[in-house]
Amino acid sequence: MSRPTLWSTADMDEDLADAVDAELSLYVQQGQNPAIYDQLGAQIEQLEPLLAIQQHMAALAAVPDVVKSFIVSFHQAILNRDLPSITIFYTTTFPKLTDRFYSRTEWPEPETIAPLLSSNEATEDQIHIFLVLYRDLYYRHVYSRLHPNIDDRFHSYENSCELFNYLLNSPSSADDNSDEPAPVDLVLPEQWLWDIIDEFIYQFQVFCSWRSKVKSKTGDELMMLADGTGVWSSYSVLNVLYSLIQKSKINEFIVALKEEQGKESARSAEEVAKSISPYTALPLYRTLGYFSVLGLLRVHVLLGDFTLALKVMDQVGEFLLGGSGFGAKANKSSFTALPTLPATHISTHYYVGFCYMMLRRYPDAIRTFVTVLNFLQRMQRMRNYSGYERKDQYDQIAKTADRTLALYAMCHSLVLPGSPFTRLDDNITSTAKERYGDQMGRMSKGGSDALAAFEELFLYACPKFINANSPPYDDPDAIALLLSADPTEPAEGSPIPTDPTQRHLRLFLASAGAQSPLPTLRSFLHLYTSLTTEKLSSFLDLVKVSESDQETVEEAEEEAIQEMMVLKQNSRSLSRIVPAQGRSEKGNDASPAGLTVIGTLLEGEMISTSDLNFVIDDNTIHIAESTVGRRYAGWFIKNTERSQRVLDEIRGSPLPVFKGKVGQKQGASGTVAPGAESVAINDSAEAAQKKAPTKTVAWGGAGTRTTLDA
Description:
Layout lengths: L8 H22 L3 H28 L3 H15 L3 H19 L8 H4 L10 H22 L4 H20 L20 H22 L7 H9 L6 H15 L1 H11 L8 H8 L6 H21 L2 H6 L2 H7 L21 H17 L3 H19 L10 H24 L11 H20 L2 H14 L14 H9 L15 H14 L4 H8 L4 E3 H7 L10 H21 L1 E4 L1 E3 L15 E3 L7 E4 L3 E6 L2 E6 L6 H21 L23 H15 L5 E2 L8 E2 L3
Antiparallel strand pairs: 1-7, 2-5, 3-4, 6-7, 8-9
Helix pairs in contact: 1-2, 3-4, 6-7, 7-8, 8-13, 10-13, 11-12, 13-16, 16-17, 16-18, 17-18, 18-19, 18-20, 19-20, 20-22, 24-25
């Protein structure tokens, strides 16, 4: 039932127009009298609320009826804590209405749709929190489909702060006189909670990138940025995420769950959560705390602190990634007590693998990338996978998959040839070569072309790094200096690039460039079991064989030894997954492949990553090569399946038909075999009974069709 109209819009327009015309004519007649001007301004200020109401009423009238019905039903579902309906409205109805009505425009403003929410059941606080949630969807749509201006950036930050403040610092119920905060009575689907955390970090990242471009700012934007230095600051974002983790006690919850594993009378996850905290007992806070840990991983990677990014994953990482190492034993309960959204799984593996790559732990990075790429391949076979109804989600996942494949190609090229980590998954390697075959070939050869290929893939696949601090917008002199600086010339006394992406690229290329001569050096070492440093220097073109200057020869030999030390250093790496032999204390955690997982994501042991080892005795190099046996299991399985398919095809094909006349079955020599006449007669009779007289039978492919005669 529609609400009665309190006034007529047409009458309001006429009254406002008459009032304004009368005041303006009076102002013109009496001249520029200050008193008359002040009186006119005061009257216009009194009319402004009416003008605002009129604008809101006109905007509400322009909202389609189906959108109005959706907003009312969405609000009612949240009031009733109807989680299935909320999930359908959020994951299906809202995207469909967006594509239908608001693909290129904004959704109605919260103030416009507020009159639709007034009912006897909803309190002011309930209406307010729904408007906060609606603003979250509103600004997310602006960021994804439109171009946000500075007001949108500031207001989205204020709305996020209001939402998290409501969740963290809501007062207790009216029956309780305590001033201590209490959990809120709110139910939201896991996908929405993840999108809240993910969008919060995304808007922070976009704002920092936009804020760092000083020369593109207008005068008004410079003034607003000078006044709002705390908007989207790194401290405020980190404070929100750490507060959600602390409030939910998610790390304590995971520790308690691991302690319950293996017990005969183990408590359920809900019982464990209730024993920890009232906040932990609610799925809302438990899920937000878990997603906040994954969000912290992403924020620390964006800020360039890869060690701290893995450190915050101490408990959650072991719980979620305990079986992500290829060949290691999986944690069977890791996907039951915590949310298992595909987006969180893919994002976590991407950022953890990138941290390992930047820390030069390439074996762990390759295992992490192989795990998530295998998951993505299985996901692509499931067209109607739960959680992928929204096209924007699937597009984002596909983009992350392609970037992950590029990172895998880089790590695969950085690991020395012959390493067992280059053969973890042949399917993934084949896919990487199809997609980035040219870059992988150049990266494997070394030299300047390799560095160009590394730079190309790094800039494509790396996260969008940000600066932790804002430019000095509150200092006019410093901003004027930045505006007058030439962007093509580096700042004086600053050899390090100011762009965070270029800074991390420079560090990565320095590490990759040190390995560029290693493929050539390794190819020569494979040819010998022992050789002198002088001969190796001549092979590497460091010195000529006929060189008579002893000092030059010694310098060349020293340079060759330095390159061999680089090869030795790159032949060993810290790995979280190690062979289980000799580790009796963790023998129960070993997988059938003989591997076991060590501790947290930062822990590990030094392992050999190459099949080539050497020692230097005086001026002689002794080389030992360990040949890795071929993995026959996959070859036998593949050929067994192929043989089974051929056998099934043979069994499903019709029998061959004798082409000769009855009684003239010939042997190999052309004569009729003894007793063959009666057999041929019986076979022909049976064939005539089973087959129609004129039916065509195929055997052996085209060109072998014959017709049976009656």
